[in-house]
Amino acid sequence: MILLFCGIIGSLVILMKFSIITFGCKVNAYESEYMKEELVKNGYIYTFSLPEANLIIINTCSVTNTADNKCKKMIRSVKRDNKEAILLVCGCTAENHKEALSSLGIDILIGNQDKANIVSILEEYQKNKKKYVHFYEDRAKKFEPMHVTKFQNLTRAYVKIQDGCNNFCSYCIIPYVRGNIRSKDLQEAITEIKELVLQGHKEIVFTGINTGAYGKETGEYDLVTLIEAISLFPELERIRISSIEITEIDDRFIEELRCNKKICGHLHVSLQSGSDRILKLMHRKYTKEQYLEKIRKIREARPYINLTTDVIVGFPGETEEDFLECVSFCQLVGFSKIHVFPYSKREGTKAASMPNQLDNKIKKERAKRLIAIDTDLERQYNKQFIHQNVSVLIEEFIDGYSIGHTENFLKVMIPMELPLNKMVIVTITEIYADYVVGSFPTSVN
Questions:
Q1: If we measure between CA atoms, which residue out of 341, 355, 353, 351 comes closest to residue 171?
Q2: Residue 143 covered by a domain
Q3: The pLDDT value given to residue 361
Q4: pTM of the prediction?
Q5: Which residues contact residue 117 at a Cβ distance below 8 angstroms, ignoring those fewer than 6 apart?
Q6: Cα 46 from Cα 18, distance rounded (Å)
Q7: How many domains would you assign to the chain?
Q8: Predicted confidence band at 304 (pLDDT cuts at 50, 70, 90)?
Q9: 241/208 Cα distance (integer angstroms)
Q10: For the stretch 283-312, what's the b/e string if a residue is b when 16 or more beta carbons lie within 10 angstroms of its beta carbon?
């Protein structure tokens, strides 16, 4: 630890080194960035090295059993190898398994709601030296006031605009650990995004648990309202939506997608199943015909849009016929990427008590078959762009390649070093399943 004189308050304070381990989604990534920024602002020193840290924060994910188990394993490992460090655990696994985690020697255990109060919680813990555990049982939580000024290690910037979910899909634990839908105030979101853009971020990524529900709880504004407002910033080149439900895509959104070229040509629209019978059991609020009609309208607005999705295989009661129906539907839609998940039984959800739970062997076998289909679909989509000129935002340089993404989220590898956070125009020369190769930049902004 380091003793330092703080001229503002005129007293000695102890400054600590801290490290953050983040699991899960872009919402968690944003919240971890906020916690990091707040701690640094208050005199804490960030370090990548866990052995150097006096404080270790683990921001957890509970979307599947595998995610839960990874988080628990990390908690045990950190506690074993860093006995002198304060261990703070937060996030969805903490919410979902608060009783089980209470025996792991965690010093500070909170859920999702108090991440914005991390500094005051740490001050209380260091003052009292007592284990701190705090959770909220009420679903009607307020949107936490978080504001990130710059992402130090990313060229694109995440902005959490929404939290919570009211859908209660029968397989999903997230509504139980994140609470009801709630949104960042429109003006606060605009102000935060403007600051990030002025700090040099050319691309803004909207994140949320149910991003398309932004503003829906009050009806005063919606996602398109925010998109229209920030599109006026001349320095902002790209607006990316991390994911959106098909039920949240309406004609107003599609028209904005058609007209506003700052919106990236990539949407991640979860399907979960291509069988109407399974969709109904999942409590998804659409049929595959309704899904396909929305996709048709989206492609009419943006012909070369990159459409990716999530699919759960091996849901309780899923027959071979249901699975084959799902495969055929995925091929019909022509997704460019399918994130395939074997069904994960989540205690406390409706699906956990459904009959006809499938054997893990069947789930893994179906996942393997769908992944093979996905590889072919991804290659087919990428082939459209061979010999085409594309604009790439350079994000990193690794092993002799500059790596970045196009606006429609093609991963492009360029065999030369280029400035980070710059847009370059390259010609795609080689196509692979999960990336393409670009060469001969013709211009650098």
A1: 351
A2: no
A3: 97
A4: 0.92
A5: none
A6: 5
A7: 4
A8: very high
A9: 9
A10: ebebebeebeebbebbeebbeebbbbbebb
